[in-house]
Amino acid sequence: MGVLSEFKAFAVKGNVVDMAVGIIIGAAFGKIVSSFVGDVIMPPIGLLIGGVDFSDLAVTLKAAQGDAPAVVLAYGKFLQTVLDFMIVAFAIFMGVKAINRLKREEAVAPTAPPIPSKEEQLLGEIRDLLKAQNNQP
After folding, report:
1. Which chain regions cross the lipid bilayer (predicted)?
2. Could you tell me the CA-to-CA distances from 111 to 93, 115, 124 in Å, in that order?
């Protein structure tokens, strides 16, 4: 088997395609969460703490001298990233929790036993008749 045919067999397997779809959806979800955090969550938090944007929080360790740039400890960007992570983690937790609840409700719902086919019913009757004949003296 050639390398190209092996690669084709690998690439079209269901789990590879599922993984690719998951990655694409994950990237799109990341953009949604980033927009949610940056455009919806952070403005009220910034207003509550006096209009400060976390990403702008920094400490200058060494001022710029000549052509050398300033050395800055940008801890606000780190705080923003941690907040983004917490919001993403919480959103995923809530999604998984909802999915698990739906699965539990499906499992609890009783399912009616399948109706046996005519052949199965006939075989059951034959079995019952044979048992009755074997039990006679």
Report:
1. 78-96
2. 29, 12, 22
Over its C-alpha atoms, the chain yields an Rg (Å, rounded) of 32
Neighbours of 37 (CB within 10 A): 19
What kind of fold does domain 3-112 have according to CATH? 1.10.1200
Question: In angstroms, rounded to a whole number, what is the distance separating the alpha carbons of residues 94 and 75?
Answer: 29
Helix (H) or strand (E) holding 60: strand 59-62
Q: What is the pTM of this model?
A: 0.46
pLDDT tens digits for 63-90?
Answer: 989 888 999 998 988 988 887 788 777 7
Domain ranges for the chain: 3-112
Question: CA–CA separation, 80 vs 34, rounded Å?
Answer: 10
Contact 79, 54 (CB under 8 A): yes
Distance CA 28, CA 89 (A): 15
Residue 103's identity, in one-letter code, is K
Distance between CA atoms of 115 and 27, rounded to whole angstroms? 46
* Residue closest to 41 by CA, chosen among 87, 89, 102: 87
